[in-house]
């Protein structure tokens, strides 16, 4: 992890390689804007400039061609840049060659996101997950970059065997550290499972807020709960799930509201794996509220990225979802009216502003309907020996009607799919 000094911010420059042969379809100017926001989310960096660099294809050893390399070097030296952030993947060899050619430190998109996650992670689990992701990433960067990595280690062969290279020793040290972290994480995850099991005993539906990073989830969470969760115009402001038990206004039901880490396109694979446990809250949700920044030019693409991640997590298609079109206060009158009209035509869309509060009442009504409608009636037959199961149903107020039979009890039960699944484990 890079360390920045307290007395002066590191002068950084952001480059977005627009590789024509890749044909991503995304607007390179907007991609650069997001990359700059990522850089600004990391304390201790001063973004001195940002450019889109058009490339017919990436150069295998240097990423950029010779002429472009010299042109960029002149800019880096003129602006006294200390760190170059490349918005995209940079191979270990490319990173080493570019750092040598330009005489500066270089981070690719994955490295930058890891730095931000490391800075933001607040819970024990979050810290462990980031450390594991960083080590997995670092392991791929063990190229013969500097002379100490090219040295053969001699000796008597007791430590690592004769002639083991430093790079192999480094790799083995990382693997050992990963095993240690994995064990620690397993313990933490078990503790979380216990917390989740105790929450499962509470008959409150779970409502999970999801969305692209900086879509306004934390602001919405604060407005719904009155909590002071960090909500700033900054990417990845929330990295650990925050949960609050709230009573929905207007005499609505009690729910557990969960705010989750923001999703982002091209999230590094190391982090998708590392943060799966953080996003497990979404899998347990009775209702998913997908928050979109409707004022963003690429709101549709961002929404598609969020849906893809939800699918990869294994979120059930049957889980009810509400789409929130947030930040309507940022639209001009004509665009705002068009958004409100489109939202009104859709059953599961709410247009609002979490900042001003406009549209919040309708959202609360929709959440109330979403968690109360998601129940059904079942008829259960329990034997006289199933006292524990019967007590479990009564503790949660799920029994609507009961009559005694020769063999036990026949109960009419109104419950959600989640409660029905829990009952199967009693």
TrEMBL record:
Main location: cytoplasm
Superkingdom of the organism of origin: Bacteria
Cofactor(s) this protein cannot do without: Mg(2+)
Keyword rRNA-binding (UniProt): no
Name of the molecule in the record: GTPase HflX
Binding locations of Mg(2+): 218, 238
InterPro entries membership: G_HFLX_dom, GTP-bd, GTP-bd_M, GTPase_HflX, GTPase_HflX_N, GTPase_HflX_N_sf, HflX_C, P-loop_NTPase
Family: Belongs to the TRAFAC class OBG-HflX-like GTPase superfamily. HflX GTPase family.
Oligomer status and interactors: Monomer. Associates with the 50S ribosomal subunit.
Source species: Roseovarius pacificus
Residues engaged in binding GTP: 211-218, 236-240, 259-262, 326-329
Any Pfam family hit: GTP-bdg_M
Described purpose of this protein according to its UniProt entry: GTPase that associates with the 50S ribosomal subunit and may have a role during protein synthesis or ribosome biogenesis.
Keywords: Cytoplasm, GTP-binding, Magnesium, Metal-binding, Nucleotide-binding
Localisation per UniProt entry: Cytoplasm
GO molecular function: GTP binding; GTPase activity; metal ion binding; ribosome binding
UniProt domain Hflx-type G: residue ranges: 205-375
Annotated HAMAP family: GTPase_HflX (MF_00900)
Gene3D superfamilies linked: 6.10.250.2860, GTPase HflX, N-terminal domain (3.40.50.11060), P-loop containing nucleotide triphosphate hydrolases (3.40.50.300)
GO cellular component, one term: cytoplasm
């Amino acid at each position: 992890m890079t360390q920045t000094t307290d007395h002066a911010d590191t002068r950084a420059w952001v480059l977005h390689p627009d590789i024509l042969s890749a044909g991503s379809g995304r607007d390179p100017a907007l991609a650069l804007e997001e990359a700059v926001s990522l850089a600004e989310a990391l304390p201790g960096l001063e973004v001195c400039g940002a450019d889109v660099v058009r490339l017919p294809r990436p150069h295998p050893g240097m990423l950029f061609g010779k002429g472009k390399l010299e042109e960029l070097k002149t800019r880096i030296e003129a602006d006294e840049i200390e760190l170059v952030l490349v918005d995209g993947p940079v191979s270990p060899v490319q990173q080493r060659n570019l750092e040598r050619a330009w005489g500066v430190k270089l981070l690719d998109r994955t490295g930058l996101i890891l730095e931000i996650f490391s800075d933001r992670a607040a819970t024990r689990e979050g810290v462990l997950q980031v450390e594991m992701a960083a080590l997995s990433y670092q392991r791929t960067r063990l190229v013969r970059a500097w002379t100490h990595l090219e040295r053969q280690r001699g000796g008597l062969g007791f430590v690592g065997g004769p002639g083991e290279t430093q790079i192999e020793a480094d790799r083995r040290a990382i693997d050992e550290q990963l095993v240690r972290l994995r064990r620690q994480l397993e313990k933490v995850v078990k503790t979380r499972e216990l917390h989740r099991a105790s929450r499962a005993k509470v008959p409150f539906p779970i409502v999970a807020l999801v969305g692209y990073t900086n879509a306004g989830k934390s602001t919405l969470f604060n407005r719904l709960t009155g909590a002071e969760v960090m909500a700033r115009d900054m990417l990845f402001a929330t990295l650990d799930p925050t949960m609050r038990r709230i009573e929905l206004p207007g005499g609505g039901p009690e729910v557990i509201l969960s705010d989750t880490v923001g999703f982002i396109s091209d999230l590094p694979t190391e982090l998708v794996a590392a943060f799966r446990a953080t996003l497990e809250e979404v899998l347990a949700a009775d209702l998913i509220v997908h928050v979109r920044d409707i004022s963003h030019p690429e709101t549709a693409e961002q929404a598609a990225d969020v849906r893809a991640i939800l699918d990869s997590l294994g979120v059930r298609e049957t889980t009810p979802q509400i789409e929130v079109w947030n930040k309507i206060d940022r639209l001009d009158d004509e665009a705002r009216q068009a958004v409100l009209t489109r939202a009104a035509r859709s059953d599961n869309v709410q247009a609002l502003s979490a900042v001003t509060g406009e549209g919040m009442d309708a959202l609360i009504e929709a959440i109330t309907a979403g968690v109360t409608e998601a129940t059904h009636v079942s008829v259960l037959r329990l034997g006289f020996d199933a006292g524990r199961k019967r007590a479990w149903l009564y503790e949660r107020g799920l029994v609507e009607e009961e009559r005694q039979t020769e063999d036990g009890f026949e109960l009419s039960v109104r419950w959600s799919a989640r409660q029905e699944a829990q009952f199967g484990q009693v």
